[in-house]
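step 4 of 6: structure.
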Amino acid sequence: EMQLVESGGGLVQPGGSLRLSCEVSGIIFSDYWMNWVRQAPGKGLEWVANIRQDGSEKSYLDSVKGRFTISRDNAKNSLYLQMSSLRAEDTAVYYCAGGLGADYWGPGTLVTVSP
Amino acid sequence: DIQMTQSPSSLSASVGDRVTITCRASQDIGLYLAWFQQKPGKAPRSLISTVRNLQGWVPSRFSGSGSGTEFTLTISSLQSEDYATYYCQQYLNYPFTFGPGTKVDI
């Protein structure tokens, strides 16, 4: 079964940048689509981005297009989310989720965008 | 974007009750519908994929049904550990979208 662990969250000022990582184990990472999903404090779930198994296809939520970049390194079994021009409304717990239908989830990492 | 709605937004039920949650999509999503369970302070967990396929950890009291635009999550006999918020999600078209959630209180 897939195990996922996110890292890289923290406090960042508006306009700043942050890179999230997700280390995956327990499965053949290169067999899976991978997603980032976020949850603002007290709110519901919001899909952010995903990436095809070989990295050839990437899709994004409109509100993060041009600011966030999803990538993966299949040799390192790792997924990344490079976030720039961060806004207060990006404050959330960010989860990585494995599989096109998000069958597996990590525990999440908190990103707080605040002066 | 495909809009997902859920009803009810919350419910209170007793142990042993049959519970049904409805999820509706603003357009036909075929079978690309998943359900997730989230307990307070925890990450979501996948319950069901492609409308009716239970994940390995999920007890048989959970079931999913539907197609097209209307879907149902049923808990046949509610247990205390089922207290959680339940979300549906479509993964046919981008952006993938979640319903607003249904909170189940025991």
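step 5 of 6: annotate
 - The longest strand of chain B covers residues 19-25.
 - Chain B has a mean pLDDT of 97.
step 6 of 6: archive
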